[in-house]
Amino acid sequence: MPQVTLSADGRQLTLQTDSTSLRFHALWLRDNAIDGATRDPGNGQRLITMADLPAETTLTQASLTDGTLMLTFGPDGHSARYDLGWLVANAYDKPQPRDAGRLPAQTSAWTSALNATVPTGAYPEVAQSDSARAAWLEHIRRYGFAKMTNLPVQSGNLFKIVDLFGYVRETNYGRHFEVRTEVNPTNLAYTGLGLQAHTDNPYRDPVPSLQVLSCLENSAEGGENMVVDGFACALRLKEINPEGFDLLCKYTARFEYAGSAGVKLQSRRPMIELAPDGTLQAVRFNSRSIAPLTDVPFDEMEAYYAAYRQLSEIIDDTDMEVTFKLEPGEAFIVDNTRVLHARKGYSGAGNRWLQGCYADKDGLLSTLAALESQQEAAA
Amino acid sequence: MPQVTLSADGRQLTLQTDSTSLRFHALWLRDNAIDGATRDPGNGQRLITMADLPAETTLTQASLTDGTLMLTFGPDGHSARYDLGWLVANAYDKPQPRDAGRLPAQTSAWTSALNATVPTGAYPEVAQSDSARAAWLEHIRRYGFAKMTNLPVQSGNLFKIVDLFGYVRETNYGRHFEVRTEVNPTNLAYTGLGLQAHTDNPYRDPVPSLQVLSCLENSAEGGENMVVDGFACALRLKEINPEGFDLLCKYTARFEYAGSAGVKLQSRRPMIELAPDGTLQAVRFNSRSIAPLTDVPFDEMEAYYAAYRQLSEIIDDTDMEVTFKLEPGEAFIVDNTRVLHARKGYSGAGNRWLQGCYADKDGLLSTLAALESQQEAAA
Question: Where is the TauD/TfdA-like domain (chains A, B) (predicted)?
Fold first, then answer.
């Protein structure tokens, strides 16, 4: 039987269940009350600001009935109900790890072993079935990439993919861009050169957090695509050279692109970016657009370069990569804050024509979370 | 007379000018060579990767003539020229401050004193003159907001503003959204309620880094807009409560919006976000969409709330705000990673109709940098 007790000063509540004991502050409980005066019943947005919450908020009464906690607060006498399951799910009286270099929730690191089960969806199913769509989006949240097959082979089909979850991010490259050999390329992507695994547009802040590449023709020799898990690479670097890992997190690199008129994109971000709690947040890696490193102190520059070289070697290691050659009507999407993509050089008689566009993760994760809520509600 | 010397092992070069002595590593110099084999002469992108740079790179020869440094490297015998001015501008042998809570380069903090000289541009000038456009964009880079006057009073005129520098970021709210009173509002923005100063969509990751709000009607009573410099507020908090400032940087807050079907946006980011070197990077503050704080340890929660309350009080302090009532044909733009915006409640016989949209800073800063390069080249 769960039980609640209040501290003598009314500033804390302790919830004792069979398995655990969780403390909450009166102010936190008052701030998170769910009632029509605190939150809008329609859209769930909070109606009050901190100025409406007395600093000296206390608990004056607490009772627990059938999984519902009923609380009364002083000094204003406000009362509110809390679902016990909600309280346990939102408890903060727990260990809060802060070591650097942890995977975010709901992600798994991967290496070339994933070649055996490349996350893939078929467009007709994913477009028609909520569960197939949720499964495909879940792959992207977990692995940071997924393939899509069975698209109609037509220019602009990449927008059909973005329409499944969100919105295109337009840039100076257009709403979409043509990836094929050009005579005077504004970007090395528009040549037949092989490209080392990279994240796109690290010189852009905010960086586009998703990229879609869709294949319309691929009869040239070569031109395979590779994807590499930047988080797995960062963790491998941390294992073999923890100080080097720290250097790549601690100092900002600079990236730059000024390949066409009227454009001078610049950013200052670390190659490995951590959230304040040490969770891996983003990887930026692009040998074409990295600018001179000026934010690393002289005495650390050699060690920084050594770590940068090790990370580059890990990224180039075929043990880390998943490879596929796209057929017309196939595409892939990458989480551009995490997964690097590469291509082999191509040549010969045939043609290679891909179309690319950017989009953002907010819409993708929102669509997935909404589908998951819907599935839970139906279950 | 500038002079250069090489270290005995060839791994360092020292550049001695009248005023300073700057050291560079051989590897850094080789990596940043500007020649047709290292960088594409057309688009400036680097053609080599770390695998092409020998780890044991050394300098074997150095000579300085008329502001140009000519270097030869071992073991591969590569040689390259460096402009002395470029070297000094990109030097890293210098103090690299890392204290928390510094303004980014090219920004100035501000308070209500800025009411006397609100950064403003007139659309016809800004659209037609490069120098007027650069000046208006520079206001936004420096202060994080600017007004725009003399727009044609017509629906969609806010896109004219975005076209000056970049691209709209479409979201679940549309390419643009109507800010006026609705009967069943999916967002409290679509009511006549006053709104505390906030950044928009902190529940979105990446957050839209620019917002434009354009006025088509404003005959209601009230409805003034206020803007507040989030960086100035963060620095004031740091002054009065440095430990509290650290708590708001150190622990992630959570934000959430699920006000309409199919949407469940969630983020986990600190209210005050620092770059790894301690520079202020972003402020997120929104009493409507902050979710329960679960990433703050129990023992720090009261101190965290106290700091959150202080920051809220600073934000509400009229000494921090710039206020204006938009006329039809007027608009303003905010750097949504820094500047909070608010509105007074409105009511009465008249109407208030604004249109809003999001865009991103990458395009704005790129356009400004390109205009500045062009002005320098012409000077």
Answer: 120-358
Test the B interface: residue of A43, A94, A184, A295 with most B CBs within 10 Å: A43
Side-chain-side CA neighbours of B44 within 13 Å: the count stands at: 14
Confidence label for A184 from pLDDT (cuts 50, 70 and 90): confident
Query: Mean pLDDT across chain A, nearest whole number?
Result: 95
Q: How do the domains of chain B map onto residue ranges?
A: 3-89, 112-373
Which of B288, B290, B340 is the best substitution to test chain A (most A C-beta atoms within 10 A)? B288
Distance from CA of A159 to the nearest CA of B (A): 14
**Domain B3-89 grouped into CATH 3.20.20.380:** no
Query: Can you tell me the mean pLDDT for A359-377?
Result: 96
CB contact under 8 A, B295 and A252: no
Alpha carbon of A378: minimum distance to chain B alpha carbons (Å): 15
- pTM of the predicted model, to two decimals? 0.97
Instruction: Please state which architecture CATH assigns to domain A112-373.
Output: 4-Layer Sandwich (3.60)
Q: Do A257 and B45 touch (CB under 8 A)?
A: yes
Residue A27's Cβ-side half-sphere holds a number of Cα atoms within 13 Å equal to 20
Beta carbons of B206 and A42 less than 8 Å apart:
no
Place of tokens 């020292």: B14
